[in-house]
Write a structure and sequence with these properties.
By secondary structure, the chain is mostly beta strands. It contains two helices and 54 strands. Keywords: Signal.
């Protein structure tokens, strides 16, 4: 369970970082940090003595070929190098900062590449230099750059201490875009911390920054004034970036870290990759052995995955990687998972988030999986990108004897000969043949007039008057219904028909209603819903337990209403797919809105679960023919409106829809609930024609704080092919407090 506590920070907005305080004592050798070549630091096993982060270089200006050397405090016995977080800012040219010894090979994790533009943070390991082996040296290659350096720990010989090995977990997101205000701190409680854990490996990311600043990460219990001397992220408006952080655990139960944001506001996420523990048989842990080599260099297409089999030592439990992404054709995310698939909790994580013009690099601690416990899978989500994955170390149990050759697996028992297939039971009498389904799955082709509503050439029989259906299994096919339809039975089908209503309706009236508890498993397909007398009261389909497929709905106030007032605790059981909502009826005075204007939505969910909305075209624009047409702009309301007025809304799958227009194309509120987990909202394609509130301020996806999702909202994309939505005023995803 994630626990986040918000507190006020102690620093004034204009305060410069205070002079470095003495390093806290009592640092425990806790972990292996795979960061450099074996011949330099790691050898056949190394550990990390983590410290409370502290700034050791502040605002050093380095010209081309220039270096900064700093003396480090309180170096533990047996140390080979220092683990640093290096921040590069205000670069005048593309350049690389290195922490390598002159004349020695320089591995990828001893380099940090930056360029003019956003501030670049990254983890480096530097060998100790100087006569007393108590200094580190950072060198700049080109142009001029401002450098900050924070000390996070020391690399030690594996034999220097019996402490600490790395225990991987299946990566998972434990904090999703949590807002953090200026000079505020938050306590992040890490879930499922194993016994003996001393530090945690996290991928920390940011987005939606309102100004340039920095974020610090420290063990809980560290004074804010001390923590704020260092940084792990450097937010900037319009940028989405992440950085790996190895942070000592603090708090009374040694399961918490504190994050502090200095300037402006920002949204943060955290992906858990593993723990550094005192060796224990309770978890699959290992000390780190150095390694070098490139595991993958490839241009990955949108949605492409590559499973890599690594040359891992016997018994290895995890690998540390350097992942670089370049030349992205749109906003995308690169994920790395153990084994041979990207699934479950790991699918919601990312290591780098490149976009055009922004090459990204990061390190990652990933468990090994697959049949030989030597495989990882790399996946790219949303746009073509070049990816390079380099191996820099493996976590291997230090007390294990060399792994014996695996005992031959017992020969599987011969598969029993398949039993003769039983004679098939007599097939049930076939249901009435449905209209031929399109050959394309929902979400493949955008619904329009030619692909929704009554199929061309259908002969319709007119029916005058409202219909109340009480017989289970009723099928209405090929009818032009001048009345409202109320379904009060199970398994009712309406297909190849038009439903027009019989008048203005009253209060909230569906052209088709499924409001009674007796309505279950209704199907409305290849049908047009259009009122002959548009009014403030009419919705296309209203209620629960219905499937709408290839429906054309227009000239209504709302297209589809989803809730179950007959049983508020029951699931809604609604499917809407391959349908088209457009040209809604606007009225300046709506009795249901205190005689204010109508609230028009293509889909409004007011409660329930088990809801699937896939492959629809939701155009939240007001009609130029129906309604009173007194609107200030056609783009009003929402394509999707989530308002849990009747019951909590959970377990929704909404994917691969086309959504445009509205005051917001998709709006999520939590109603009277403090939190609400909506479900999955992913791979939807958004237009750019939302209402302009002034100065180009638009809402594409608008979310109330406290609403969470099973996958990141950044998996949604722009319909024009320009890439993924991101958090930010002009980037597509905005949160309200």
């Amino acid at each position: 369970m994630l626990v986040v506590a918000m507190t006020g920070g102690a620093l004034p907005a204009t305060a410069a970082p205070a002079p470095a305080a003495p390093a806290p004592t009592g640092a425990t050798a806790a972990a292996v940090v795979p960061t450099v070549a074996a011949e330099d630091l790691l050898g056949d096993g190394s550990t990390l003595a983590p410290v409370v982060p502290r700034r050791v270089v502040s605002s050093a200006i380095l010209g081309p070929g220039k270096s900064v050397t700093v003396t480090l405090p309180s170096i533990p016995a047996g140390s080979r190098g220092a683990v640093l977080n290096v921040t590069a800012a205000d670069a005048t040219a593309r350049t690389t900062l290195t922490s390598c010894l002159t004349g020695t090979p320089c591995p990828v994790t001893a380099k940090l590449t930056t360029a003019p533009g956003p501030v670049t943070p990254g983890q480096l390991v530097a060998p100790l230099v100087g006569a007393d082996k108590n200094k580190v040296k950072i060198t700049n290659s080109s142009g001029t750059v401002k450098v900050h350096v924070d000390l996070n720990g020391y690399v030690r010989d594996a034999g220097a201490s019996a402490d600490g090995t790395f225990a991987p977990v299946t990566p998972r997101r434990i904090m999703s875009w949590q807002a953090l205000g200026q000079q505020k701190s938050m306590t992040l409680t890490i879930p499922d911390v194993p016994a003996g854990a001393t530090a945690v490996a996290l991928d920390l990311g940011y987005a939606a920054a309102t100004r340039r600043g920095f974020v610090s990460a420290c063990p809980t219990g560290t004074a804010v004034s001390f923590c704020a001397q260092s940084s792990v992220l450097n937010p900037a408006p319009g940028v989405n970036r992440s950085n790996v952080a190895v942070v000592r655990l603090g708090g009374a139960k040694r399961n918490q870290i504190t994050l502090y944001n200095h300037l402006g506001s920002v949204r943060l996420n955290a992906d858990l990759q593993g723990f550094f523990v005192k060796g224990s048989a309770a978890v699959p842990d290992g000390a780190l052995q150095g390694a070098t080599g490139t595991a993958l260099t490839a241009n990955l297409a949108k949605g492409e995955k590559r499973t890599l089999r690594l040359s891992a030592p016997d018994g290895a439990t995890a690998v540390k990687l350097h992942v670089k992404a370049a030349n992205a054709k749109g906003g995308t995310a690169v994920t790395v998972c153990p084994g041979t698939s990207v699934a479950g909790s790991c699918a919601a994580t990312s290591v780098v988030n490149p976009y055009p013009g922004n090459d990204s690099a990061n390190v990652a601690y990933i468990g090994l999986g697959g049949t030989g416990d030597d495989q990882i899978t790399v996946a790219n989500t949303s746009a073509p990108v070049g990816v390079t994955v380099s191996v820099v170390g493996y976590a291997v149990p230090t007390d294990a004897a060399p792994a014996p050759a695996p005992a031959p697996a017992p020969a599987p028992a011969p598969a029993p000969a398949p039993a003769p297939a039983p004679a098939p039971a007599p097939a049930p009498a076939p249901a009435p043949a449905p209209a031929p389904a399109p050959t394309d799955p929902a979400g493949t082709i955008k619904p329009n007039a030619a692909r929704t509503g009554v199929p061309d050439g259908t002969t319709l029989k007119r029916h005058d008057g409202d219909m109340v259906i009480t017989k289970a299994g009723t099928v209405i096919d090929g009818m032009d219904i001048h009345g409202f339809v109320s379904i009060r039975a199970a398994d009712v089908t309406i297909r190849n028909s038009v439903v027009r209503g019989s008048g203005r309706g009253s209060y909230s009236t569906g052209l088709v209603s499924c409001l009674e508890s007796s309505c279950t498993n209704a199907l409305i397909e290849d049908t047009t819903l259009v009122p002959k007398t548009p009014s403030t009261f009419i919705t296309g389909i209203l209620g629960h337990d219905y499937t709408a497929r290839r429906v054309d709905v227009h000239h209504v106030v709302d297209g589809f209403g989803i809730f179950n007032t007959a049983n508020r605790s029951a699931p809604a059981n609604v499917v809407i797919e391959s349908s088209w909502c457009h040209d809604l009826s606007y009225f300046a005075k709506d009795p249901a809105q205190n005689n204010g204007p109508t609230h028009n939505d293509c889909i409004q969910i007011q409660g329930g679960s088990n809801i699937r909305i896939v492959g629809n075209n939701l155009e939240s624009f007001m009609s130029t023919r129906a309604g009173d047409q007194t609107y200030d702009a056609r783009n009003r309301g929402a394509g999707l409106m989530v308002t849990p007025n009747v019951a909590p809304i959970t377990g929704v799958t909404m994917a691969r829809n086309w959504i445009d227009g509205g005051y917001a194309s998709a709006a999520f509120s939590r109603g009277r609930y403090s939190t609400m987990r909506f479900g999955t909202f992913t791979e939807n394609r958004f237009g750019r024609n939302q209402f302009d509130f002034g100065g180009g301020s638009k809402y594409v996806i608008r979310v109330k704080e406290g609403v969470t999702f099973d996958k990141s909202l950044t998996t949604n994309v722009w319909a024009d092919g320009s890439g993924n939505l991101a958090l930010g005023r002009d980037l597509g995803i905005r949160y309200d407090p």
